[in-house]
Amino acid sequence: MNRIAMPATDTEAGSKPDAPTYRAASFTDIDMVHRRLGEIIADMPYYNDEFKAFETARMSRNHLAALIEADPYHVMLLLSGDEVAGFMISGPDLGTLWLYWSCVFPEFRKSSIAIRSVRRFIEHWDNGCFHKVSTYTMAGNAPARAIMERQGFTLTATLEQHIFGEDYLLYEHRLTKAVPGYDHGVRGGPRRALSRTVKRWLARK
Fold first, then answer.
1. Which Pfam families match (predicted)?
2. Per-residue pLDDT tens for 36-70?
């Protein structure tokens, strides 16, 4: 089961008219993404300590590497000019594309990057491979809910005491699946984990 929340917080105040760009992450980006995600999880006001500890451990460097290995765009870096302004982390599970985290760094939040990047995320993944994108957020996370609803996500269900005793909202966005078969996601096992560790080490050199 995906135990996910979406903490995007952004407004259009002070935004520039040019749309943000994005790129796929590489193994050289893993340390930065892991560090910034840990900071964002720790600072989020919406989630309890149990969830924060669980999610910080789950989103390990090896897990990020596995997502990149499956498809580099599962760790999509949001760009403001030449700078990385945030990221969107996703992964396939049982034929559904789950948006795990959508994060804009605090120094870029007085912009429209979060809103526009969700739009770009949908455009990129509406490639015929998935029926839908699913994501969780919390009832109290009004900025994330506003962004989801503005970009065409539908509130599918309210899940009571769903994650460590707290209520979560399931949002979904329909895609157009045209390609037969399903993406089975990341490849596990100690051999794959060791291979990814070696690749991360080589990427630092």
1. Acetyltransf_1
2. 999 999 998 889 999 999 999 999 999 999 999 99
160 belongs to a structural domain: yes
Domain of 130 in residue numbering reads as 21-204
- β-strand 96-104 against 132-137: which pairing, if any? parallel
pTM for the structure as a whole: 0.84
DSSP structural state of residue 19: P
Q: How many domains does the chain have?
A: 1
- Residue 190: burial class (beta carbons within 10 Å; 0-12, 13-18, 19+): exposed
Q: Would you say residue 7 lies in a domain?
A: no
172-175, long-range: CB < 8 A, 24+ apart: 172/132, 172/133, 172/134, 172/135, 173/122, 173/132, 173/133, 174/131, 174/132, 175/97, 175/122, 175/125, 175/126, 175/130, 175/131, 175/132, 175/133
